[in-house]
Each structure stands twice: as C-alpha cells, then as structure tokens.
Amino acid sequence: MALAEMEPIACSDTALQVYLLGTVDFEAVLRLQRRLHFEISGQRDQAVLLLCEHPPLITVGRQGSRAHIFCGPEELRSRRWRVRWLNRGGGCLLHAPGQLAAYPLLPLDRLGWSLPLYLSRLHKIVLKLLDDFGVEGVCRPGRAGVWAGARPLAAIGVAVRDWVSYHGAWINVCPDLELFRMVRWGDAAEPPMTSLVRERKGGIRPALVRQRLLEHFREVLGFSRVALFTEHPALNGQVQRCRKTDSTPSAQPRRS
C-alpha cells in the first residue's frame, strides 16, 4: 500500500521520548540525530523529540545559497561562525542562543503520515505556539516556515530517509536580532528574521515557550504518553544548562 493511502494509526501505543537539553553544539546534535535515526529505522515503535539551542553557526538547506549570507569569509572567521551545508529542506539559517531548536525523529510510515501531512502538522504546531503569546503567524504557499508580518519568525526544514524524519523547526524566542541581519532564511531581498520577544513587545521565559511547544506537539501529532529526559548518554556531558536568557521576565500564554 502506498504511504498516501495508509490510514493514520493512533500514537497512544508509542511513548514520545523528549530530551529537554540546554545549549548543545550543532555537530553533537547532528551525530545524535544520526544515531537515533539508525535506532528508529530498526525499531519503528519509537519516537523522539530533541529540544535544545545552539551556539552561533549558519546552516544551509536545499533551498539556500551563499547569496543568502551577507558577510564574507573574513568576518565569518572573526566571529568563529561555521557554515554547514545540509540535506534538509528550507534555506539558510543562523542559529544562536535564544532560538529554540526542535528535532522530531518519527517513523512516518508507521504513523501513516505522508511528508506533506507531516510538514503541515509541524507548521500548525508553530502557529499554535505563536498564538499562545498573542503573535499572529502566517504561512506562505510553497514556503517552509512561519512569518510574523513580513519577517520570518520560525524556520522549518526537514529531511526524511527510510521514512524516518530528522531535522525539524527553529523558533526565534529571544535571540540577538542584530545577528540575523547577516543571513536570510528565504529570498535574499526579504527582511531578516524576527522573534517572539520583538513581535509581542515584551519578555518571554524560554522554558515556558518550550513547555507550550511540547504540549502542542503532543496534541497535534496525537501522542498521549511522554517520557521526559534531560540528557542523552551519547552527548557525553556536552550540554550547557545555565542560560542568562532564562531570567527574562515571563509572560503567561494567551488562551482562547
């Protein structure tokens, strides 16, 4: 049976393993994704969500190019920013502290989801998250990501191999937006990325954003059971847990 013809199955028999990590080097998380992808490919009753942040670097997806990076090699070296080309969807993205990274590793075939359906659900999760904090998000036809007005606020770029997903979504909560003037997620002519803090004009506690994102992830994707972890043995202590941005004045989510 073709994947598009499969009836979606309930996720209640699969516990979602969620790793609430701190700031982790991108390469370490990439290696962890590869390991988890291998494990899920062999035992497809598993589902994993990694939540973390990264030190500054630039990644370039299949729709990105060097033209989307507005700083030369010398400035990249002086800032110690690596540029990493990846086989994921989406464009060119700056990662920085204050940006929440979400990496779902899911057996799409077992769950009965096509890639377009999975992508639409990821976008729905981000839209619901923005709505919690009074920010109106919009999606653009044929474009991956969520915009607040003219500026992208969240990037979405996934990859799928053997029907197991990896990579995912990145939401700007409270990063230094001056850095994002040097990189464009989509069209090189469009404005730089914005953030939740900028759009709602008030402080947000990142831990609260992470909590609400997890709640929407469970709701939209149908996971009734969640197992929470704060570390993974493969990271070997490479997680930095203390973040000054956690002291940002909290804002309670808006509920409709």
Structure overview:
This protein has helices at about 25-40, 75-80, 110, 115-130, 195-200, 205-220; strands at about 15-25, 45-55, 55-60, 85, 90-95, 100-105, 145-150, 150-160, 165-170, 225-230, 240. With about 260 residues, it is an alpha/beta fold. Strands 1, 2, 6, 7, 8, 9, 10 and 11 form an eight-stranded mixed beta sheet that branches. A three-stranded mixed beta sheet has the order 4-3-5, with no helix packed on it. The longest helix is centred in the middle third of the chain and has 18 residues, at about 115-130.
Number of spatially distinct domains = 1
Number of helices: 6
What is the architecture at the second tier of CATH? Answer: 2-Layer Sandwich
Structural class of the secondary structure composition? Answer: alpha/beta
Low-confidence runs of at least 5 consecutive residues: 1-9, 242-256
* Rg, alpha carbons: 17 Å
What share of residues are in beta strands?
A: 15-25%
Per the CATH scheme, the topology name is BirA Bifunctional Protein, domain 2
Q: What is the H level of CATH, i.e. the homologous superfamily? A: Bira Bifunctional Protein, Domain 2
Order of helices and strands: EHEEHEEEHHEEEHHEE
Helical proportion?
25-40%
Q: Determine the N-to-C terminus distance.
A: 40 Å
